[in-house]
Each structure stands twice: as structure tokens, then as C-alpha cells.
Hints:
The protein is of the alpha/beta class. The chain has helices at about 10-20, 40-50, 85, 100-105, 135-140, 185-200, 210-225, 240-245, 260-270, 280-285, 285-290, 325-335, 390-400, and strands at about 10, 25, 50-55, 70-75, 90-95, 115-120, 125, 145-150, 165-170, 205, 230, 235, 255, 295-300, 305, 310, 340-345, 350, 355, 355, 375, 380.
Amino acid sequence: MTEPSSPGTIDAAALAALVRPGARIAIADGCGTPRAAFAALSALARDRGDLRLLLGWMPAFPEGLDLAAFADVRTVMPGWGLRHGVADGHVRSVPARLSATPALVTGPLRPDLLLVGAAPDPRGLVLGSEVSWVRAVIEAGVPIAAVVDEALPRAAAGSPLPDDHTHVIGHARLGPNEVPAAGEPSDEHRAIGRHVARLLPDGARLQWAPGQLGQAVVGAVLERGRPVHVDSGLLGDGVVDLDDAGLLASDAVATYLVGTRRLYDWADARGRAGHPVLHGVEHTHDPVRLAADPPLVAVNTAVEVDLDGQINVEGTARAVVGGVGGHPDYAAAATRSRRGLSVVALASTHRGVPTLVEHLSRPVTTASHDVDVMVTEHGVADLRGRDRPERRAALREVWDPAT
Length: 403
């Protein structure tokens, strides 16, 4: 894979020629978002005064993108990178599960132009470190403005960008944003990871999210030493650890990569060998596919949980943390998977504040009936087959075993 170096060059006039008055411009999201074009696009927005913007999941703040320059900015999944924009009122966060985004971006939020980063390949220009909802926009025939980035991995399944409506507006060698591990998992996270690993049936298909808790789950799977299938919306460096240990039972499946060069180089090698990791959300978040064998164990977390087991992942009363994303997609599919499990795992407190609350700070992200098992550092609450009072008692026990 080519080493990243220079920020690149953008033909601002070529970009401007593609943007009609009042246009809505969608920017491909994830770590490989075409940030080399952000300054030129922002300058165009300030000049025009009527351009609209459609964003997706941004794991890092989009440096160079002047959100205030656009007449309207919406995101179908804010992520950490857009939380301040949402809080400041520059970005409207649309509550939508990730599986619904292809319908949104080809329907009421259909853009007039799609801005992507693309990797050069013998077949043509290809998507790099994510596919997400972008494939749906491409297949809808929306014109594409492409920044060719030689440092992007060739990790995506599917056809190259269509020649007939793809316009190259610049070149770069930035590669994907690197997102290093958030630090070593805490003792609480490691205890949770061990509890989760004991729940896995042999031959399980595992979904988890990157972060300290995800690291702890992968660490426990490595200690357990039994192969797993990996089928997740986001993939971090942990999948490389599993592969190095010989514990990947099949080709990994995801729609976003979020990690370090080690992950991107691994995915690039897989793609070049004919085993692409990345697929569109129509595939990765399809509930019918996810609920089929092998059994799916979806391991998600939460900001807070109420006494009925309803889940909030969007934020606290004071701050936006994330969006709906794939949480309800994987949870609902896992409850339907025979021998599978929908697991929500989190520490019993966060910065000294209990994560089990009487009333959620924000709307429900995932319904209580789409959660099979709740895990804290204190143990496992199996909620299956229990009525409401029994579920409340089980939740209280794993938050405060002394009660």
C-alpha cells in the first residue's frame, strides 16, 4: 500500500462546474472521507451561499470543512467528529438506523453530487476504506466528484466507479485517518470481555464495535482460543489480531474500517488477494442475512440503560455522543438468530455516575425486546423469557449485586 505523504491538489474550477445552484452535496464518510477537497468545497459554499451538505459517520472532526458556510447540513450518523457541529446547531442529526440510509439517500435526501475518495486500481477507480451507504448513491446514477488517493486501501467489494458519471477533481496521498486505540481496557472492561466470551457458542459470528470494550472482547476471544466468524459494521485492529492468531473462521465482513495503518494494510492485502472485507450496508446490515447461520452474537454498548432495559446510545442530557447507527439493526437480527444473542455490555458506572437510570436522557435507540443479555463487570443478566418485573430485578442485580 502507498505511504501517505502530501495533502494533494484539487481543481476548484472543476468542482465548481459540477455544482448547480442550491445543490445538495453528499460526502462519502468514514476514515477515508475525501478531506483533501474540504477547503475547496467550503470556499465554494461561502461563495454560493445556497449549497447544502449531506454527511455520514465521521470518526474525527472534518478539518477544513466549514460547516457554517452551508445553507443546510444534515447527517445520517454524527459520530464523534460531528458532535460539536450538532451541539452548535450547524448540523442537523437525522435519527435513522444504518440499514435505512440507502432509502434515505436515494429518496428524500438524494444528493445532486457525491464527493468521494477513490483508490486507483487496474479495474478503474474503486472505493477504499469504507462503502457504507455510498454504493446506493452511486447505483442511483448521481454524478461523482472523485479525489484519487493512492494511499487508500483497495478493500471494497463491488464494481469500480462508473466512468460515465465520475469526474476526477484532484489527487492526494493522504490515506485514511488513523484512529489509534483509545487506551488499554480497564479492569471493568476486561471483566466484561471475559463474561461476553463465555457466552459465545462454537462457530459464532461476532459483531463488536471498536473501543476499549471492543478491545476487551477481542482479548477474551483470543484467550478463549476458539475461531469465530467476524461480521461487523465497523472493523478495528482487533480483527488483525484474530487473523494473526488463526482465529478467523471465514472472510471478515464490514462496511467501515477504523484503525491504524496495520488494519488498512491488512485490508488492502485481503482485497488485492480477492477477499475484499468491505460491503455496502444493504449487505452488512441486512437483517435476514444476519439472522441466518452461523449464529450471530451482536455485542453492543450503550450510554445508558433504563430499568426496563431500553437503550440510549445517542448521548447524555447535555451532549450528543453518537447516532442511532447499526445498534438496532444488529440487536434485532441477533435476537432472531437461532443460538445467537443480542448482547449489550457496559460498565455499571461512567465517571462515577450509574449507567442504569430510571429515565433515559434521550430517545430510545434500541428497544428492550431486542436485547437478550445485559453484561456489566458484575456479571450477566439473561433477560430471555422473563417478564418485565423479572427483567428489572435481573438488571438491578448486575448493576449493584449488593441489592
